[in-house]
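Why predict the complex rather than its parts? Because the way molecules touch one another can change local conformation, and only a joint prediction can capture that. The input here totals 510 residues.
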Amino acid sequence: MTRRLGFSARAIADIPLIQAGDDIAAIVLTKARAGGLVLQDGDVLVISSKIVSKAEGRYVELDSVKVSEAALALAAETGKDPRLVELIVNESRRVSRKRPGLLVTEHRLGFVSANAGVDQSNIECGDEAALLLPLDPDHSAAAYRLAIRDELGLDIAVVISDTHGRAFRVGNVGVAIGAAGLPTVNDLRGKPDLYGRAFEVTQVAYADLVASAAHLLCGEGDEGLPAVLIRGLDTGGAPGRAIDLIRAADQDLYR
Amino acid sequence: MTRRLGFSARAIADIPLIQAGDDIAAIVLTKARAGGLVLQDGDVLVISSKIVSKAEGRYVELDSVKVSEAALALAAETGKDPRLVELIVNESRRVSRKRPGLLVTEHRLGFVSANAGVDQSNIECGDEAALLLPLDPDHSAAAYRLAIRDELGLDIAVVISDTHGRAFRVGNVGVAIGAAGLPTVNDLRGKPDLYGRAFEVTQVAYADLVASAAHLLCGEGDEGLPAVLIRGLDTGGAPGRAIDLIRAADQDLYR
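Output of the joint prediction:
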């Protein structure tokens, strides 16, 4: 990666409430244009997983959920709605931690987060329905990137962002759960430091930094800013996938 | 916090190698001015903990370290230099995880990270010396903020950033270990979502997002970009301290 001295981030305004089947790439391009944003080669588009899920129709009506015995027991332990717990378990490989009010799992996509991303905020019918994460966000990011290339002939990187809590620290940050067209992990191992001493283990979670930068604008409340365009970043180097940001089980000390 | 549509980040170039006793605020202001950056009320200045440590003279010569029996045992377990392990233990409240090549501790400032931030990269004499984290980075951030106010009459927020690895995910991100003049945790609990449904548990690690955004520019290699100015962020609301980002032990499931 080459040295850059600056970047800018701008939210794409006036994105409407997204419905199942909507064409996210087309909507984002239309609203960017309406807002006077002219996309350029090398721009990074950060899209909230929430609208990707909505476009993919990842809603589940809670009344339709058949609750297993295992989910019922876990619901009793955590004090959560058994139907939500059933959805969480279905989206997960395993439970990581649980206690009253909290259920942390390893999502089928590999990351560890609260409630497997099953969410009732910022959706219609939030008391009777829930929204699952996108089916394959790395694939969705690649599809948006291709759609933009087909439409505008531009080389735009795409990050699909989610918000995760963290062990040890208060508050959510942005993370990349889908990515295309930029490195996701920037490996400095073996590169020289300021004094020529080689780094031993440093890797930078580049796509997560991008997601966190965008999260400074998109927020999680009623602001409704689910897409952010970032200009000036170094997107050179081998492009990665968000799944590259998942630490292998045998490398993790906190499972 | 009010809705913002954009922000920009720019690294402050040509900051010299910092020596013990250097006046960080003065150097950063001088180099910002030299680079054509005119600071404004509401700007956020992100400063790498590395140069804060250097200015505070937090070097330790490894030959001067007296190694305890406990550190010797831990060094054998982890394969690390016993003198480094002694420094790590002295900077820590307790060991969180250990294995060959890795020692994760709870730092005296509360956060959990590898090697308690004791670092040999990007310092002079990196084979014979190590650099500890700043003594009280929240205090240092407040001091820089005041120095800038005294010098320029401007209301500038300051974040002192470090890079941490994470449980579950590959790669380092930026985190705030010192802060002054901006909220560090943005609490959305009880606020309405897009559909008027109240959030239950959402808090945003705002100062960590700021540190991660800056980390897109400052890097960790030989680029030497230890200060970034961010313009356009919402810094309103009750200012916090970086220590507010530390989750209380009884609230954490991964200790």
